[in-house]
Write a structure and sequence with these properties.
This protein has one domain: 2-Layer Sandwich (Alpha-Beta Plaits). The strands form two sheets. Strands 1-4 form a two-stranded antiparallel sheet. Strands 2-3 form a two-stranded antiparallel sheet. It is an alpha+beta fold. The chain contains two helices and four strands, in the order βαββαβ. It comes from Nonomuraea dietziae. Ferredoxins are iron-sulfur proteins that transfer electrons in a wide variety of metabolic reactions. Keywords: 3Fe-4S, Electron transport, Iron, Iron-sulfur, Metal-binding, Transport. Its cofactor is [3Fe-4S] cluster.
Length: 59
Amino acid sequence: MIKVDRERCASSGQCALTAPEVFAQDEEDGRVVLLDEHATGPEVRRATTGCPTQAISSD
């Protein structure tokens, strides 16, 4: 399952660019919005490891 820490998010948007079917950005503050907490695959791993503030985790 994917978890996001919106307080830690820096609004870089890398997750939404890497896996747009799983992540989006809030229109108000630009922080991460999780669209599918059960998604898996290489794009999810890239988004998790590519987050500059490590605001995304998965188990």
